[in-house]
Amino acid sequence: TPWRATVLTLFPEMFPGPLGVSLAGRALASGLWALEVCDIRDSATDKHRSVDDTPAGGGPGMVLRADVLAAAIDAADAGETRPRLVMSPRGRPLTQAKVAELAAGPGPLIVCGRFEGIDQRVIDARGLEEVSIGDYVLSGGEIAALALLDACVRLLPGVMGKQGSALEESFSDGLLEYPQYTRPQLFEDRPIPEILTSGDHAKVAAWRRAEAEKLTRARRPDLFATRPQPNRQKPPKST
Ligand code: SAM
């Protein structure tokens, strides 16, 4: 069975959306991964099919009901063990390491929040892991879920053409990526750095490593400080 994601949303028409085109879309069409989209509203029980209600304790907006969402999760996930995520600005920020972990698993169930958020009790009772895609607030979890899925799908076996490209890009070695160039050789008086056209692969690799370190130190000192160190020979034990 291929990697399969299940998305619970009030706006199923937002899927596959951008995941239906290009790399992810071709992989979806050829069965390298599968996407199941469930309308949370199908689990509503009252005659108005309501999914939300006013916040306990007062305040603006509406909150997704725990009973409705729990029923939707149970219907989608009967007897399955897989990561259960809920997109949330309060969640742990998504990282490439987390993306790689999810891509290596069976595929997650993802709950997309709306309104002011969802009743805490369903997060606790169904063991939902809160995941954020950044320190800003979207109007719903759908775009966040699309971003997470896009990042996962491109890592699945057979999805990316060239095997190496996933290994070399930003974050895979704890550094931001070195600058890239292509033809023409001269663009508005700016040449491609000479070393890249020298044909000396070792020099090119060293230049890229140095540029990546320079860029990361300047832009993301937080990443630079915690980057994994390349393997070094241990010094011989002194007795
Ligand atoms: N009142 C909530 C708060 O302050 O944390 C914000 C709710 S937001 C308007 C509605 C939904 O969008 C959230 O339940 C979540 O699913 C999604 N969302 C918004 N920003 C997000 C982010 N940065 N990462 C992931 N999901 C986000």
Please provide a brief summary of the model.
Residues 217-239 are annotated as: Disordered. With 239 residues, the chain is an alpha/beta fold.
Task: Describe what you observe in this structure.
- This protein has 239 residues and is of the alpha/beta class.
- The protein folds into 2 domains: 151 residues, SPOUT methyltransferase, trefoil knot domain (Alpha/beta knot, 3-Layer(aba) Sandwich), CATH 3.40.1280.10; 58 residues, Trp Operon Repressor, Chain A.
- Helices cover 31% and strands 17% of the residues.
- It has a 5-stranded parallel β-sheet with strand order 2-1-6-5-7, sandwiched between helices. Strands 3-4 form a two-stranded antiparallel ribbon. The protein has a two-stranded antiparallel sheet with strand order 8-9.
- The chain is elongated, with a radius of gyration of 23 Å.
- The model has no long low-confidence stretch (mean pLDDT 94).
- The structure holds S-adenosylmethionine (SAM).
- S-adenosylmethionine binds next to strand 5.
CATH class of the largest domain: Alpha Beta
CATH architecture of the largest domain: 3-Layer(aba) Sandwich
**Beta-strand fraction estimate:** 15-25%
Helix content range of the residues, please? 25-40%
Sheet with most strands: 5 strands, parallel
Assigned CATH superfamily of the largest domain: SPOUT methyltransferase, trefoil knot domain
Distance between the termini: 56 Å
Order of helices and strands: EHEEEHEHEHEHHEEHH
Task: Give me the CATH fold name of the largest domain.
Answer: Alpha/beta knot
- The total number of structural domains is 2
If strands are numbered along the chain, what order do they take across the biggest sheet?
2-1-6-5-7
Q: If you average the pLDDT, what whole number results?
A: 94
Supply the number of helical segments: 8
Looking at the structure, what is the overall shape?
elongated
Helix vs. strand class: alpha/beta
Given as residue ranges, the uncertain stretches (5+ residues, pLDDT < 50) are none
Radius of gyration: 23 Å
Number of strands: 9
Distinct ligand kinds? S-adenosylmethionine
